Amino acid sequence: MSMDSDQDVREHLLVVDGDGGENEGSEVKFRIRELRKWSESGDPILNGVSVDVPKGVIVGIIGPSGSGKSTLLRALNRLWEPPPGSVLLDGRDICEIDVLDLRRKVGMLFQLPVLFEGTVADNIRYGPQLRGKKLSDQEVHKLLTLADLDSSFYTKAGSELSVGQAQRVALARTLANEPEVLLLDEPTSALDPISTENIEDVIVKLKKKQGMTILMVSHSIKQIQRVADVVCLLVNGEIVEVLKPDELSEAKHPMALRFLELSS
């Protein structure tokens, strides 16, 4: 884990308490304030999450099943509609941003890749084409390289790909929209170790070379320790700990400790 300065990474990501205090220092990409969501039966899924996510940082989100990790992630590009004023991107309420524009800025990769009909190149060109831009062959090849795929994939169909290869094509397709933020919802849970390593390498390169802000949900603590700059522990819809990856053993919250013990 590396940062551009020696300043403790926890100063770059601040869980805000009820007084609404502001994060000082690093430029904030996402500002989340009292984000709440309830199930259809009225049970809380997110219970007032407040956190600042700085620009250019990989944030790992871990916690027990059912703790609200994916729900938190999906609020950030309006896969469900958060309450007005609860999620700000670059200081602007995401509820006031056109949802297609928002999803170009805030791309998302899911557990299982779903490719469209046609070739790999057709898939990569899909997003830009929706807004009237046709990517050149050179631009498609560049995106393939960025996703750790060689030029031979250009004309392949989705049916010819392994799950790991398809996931990297899905990543290239997301990157074709030139997102500022990447949301990753357990993107390697269905992949073999080599494919997992390939995806992790791409994630780290996107942060280092492009300064991309990345939020990643993972069931693997070891994976989060490999790629994240800072880790949020989510328990029962609340962020209960914010730690550096190598300090997870220092968690103090009882349920967070229990989760870490069982997952190690």
Question: How would you summarize the topology of this molecule?
Answer:
Blueprint: E1 28-38, E2 44-54, E3 58-62, H1 69-75, E4 87-89, E5 92-93, H2 99-105, E6 106-109, H3 120-130, H4 137-146, H5 163-175, E7 181-185, H6 193-210, E8 213-217, H7 221-227, E9 230-235, E10 238-243, H8 254-263
Parallel strand pairs: 3-8, 3-9, 6-7, 7-8
Antiparallel strand pairs: 1-2, 1-4, 4-5, 9-10
Describe the structure.
There is one protein chain. With 264 residues, this protein is an alpha/beta fold. The protein has one domain (9-115, 181-263): 3-Layer(aba) Sandwich (Rossmann fold), CATH 3.40.50. It is built from eight helices and ten strands. The protein has helices at 69-75, 99-105, 120-130, 137-146, 163-175, 193-210, 221-227, 254-263, and strands at 28-38, 44-54, 58-62, 87-89, 92-93, 106-109, 181-185, 213-217, 230-235, 238-243. Strands 6-7-8-3-9-10 form a six-stranded mixed sheet, with helices on both faces. A four-stranded antiparallel sheet has the order 2-1-4-5, with helices on one face. Residues 30-261 form the ABC transporter domain.
Summarize, please:
By secondary structure, this protein is α/β, with parallel strands linked by helices. The protein is built from 8 helices and 10 strands. The strands form 2 sheets. The chain has a 6-stranded mixed sheet with strand order 6-7-8-3-9-10, with helices on both faces. A 4-stranded antiparallel sheet has the order 2-1-4-5, covered by helices on one side.
